[in-house]
Amino acid sequence: MQNLRLYYIVLAATAAFVLLTGCMDPVGQGGHTGNAGVSVMNSPSTIEQLELVVSGPGMSPIGPVVLSSGSSSVVLEVPTGRNRVFDLDGGWYTYRRVAGITSRGLDVSARMRPLIVVPDRFNYRLVIMKDMSGRDWQAADAPGNFIFRGTDFDSHGNLLVSGAEGIQELRALPRSAVDATANLGQATYSLQQPHPVFTFDRSRNLVYFFGGGNPPFPLLRATIDPATSGEVVGDVVLFGMDILDYVGEVMLGMTVDPDGFVYIVTHRTGDDRIVKLDVSGSPQPVAAVYEDQALLDFFQVQTGFHSSDILFAGGSIYVLNPGGADGSKILRFSTELELTGAIGRLPADPADPQPGEFYGPDQFIVTTGRPLIIMDAESGQGETPVSRLVALNDVDSAAGWTTFGEYGAGDGMFNFR
What we know:
Largest sheet: 5 strands, antiparallel
Radius of gyration: 23 Å
CATH class of the domain at 12-112: Mainly Beta
């Protein structure tokens, strides 16, 4: 991510023309208009253009106004009134703000964030939407029976998706790869791998993934070359996972922090672990380990880890623990793997889940900040299956708790298990 530095100003005459041709009330409420200055604070430099639309009660939409590559701001004359909606879209990124505007004007600092992209595994599709209301829902069918697993975003404006159709693969998709017929087109680059677990270090332009062969599987690192539109260069085998003292571990999730440390959550029968790895070339790559027994001691229960995914967000490490200590939980750790918080339990009434209750937190949806978004699923075991999204601000409380979706194959529906 980087700030766009050049400025694109729509002159007052152009803005007035847009208003006079596009607004039901060109002078606004009470005969007034105000200047709305919209500044883009962050957006991948590879996005060729951004489109801004302003709408609201009593006015027809203004725009789309196009900000070309290298532009970072625009000034529009907007009718005064409440609930003016500023929508900004480009590539896999979006921004929305609803605000009132007076004759004194309004400054809008648009911090772009990724679209919500959901690997709807057993519907064999990617679901794309702008927020947790399901706004602008789009379902993109997978080629063949490609089962999507993980998602992330690289530093060149691509969506990274891992999954399998016979052989495991990591694909990088520009937004244009999802065409009007909702089929997925050509990937910018791809990697073949036996595991769907990966993570991308956007600040260093590095992708980490597990390689082939027999256990212990090696951890690999590759650089994505922006000069060749995403060519994968410099595959490096960092080390085999025999550094973890035993083989046969199932790698469940991986993430990276701003200092470049890689974290993995692993499983073997009766013993899940979080491992912090120093990938800088240290002779002692295992920087820290959090094991099952520590979790048992913390919760004073008999069942510790039964984890499923890991994510760095907002300075902390989050781990999904759907079948472990004291029911389904999200666990929060410091980057030194000290447990600092947790939230979650199984629904007291499965037909009426309450905030703070999960059926089975299964996987994080990668964003670039708050809220945390989780794929929550239960196979049903004879009852109606559950597949939904859950969003919350953090684990200290259920603040911001929002859910979307249900089990099925139609719009607004998912099939995660």
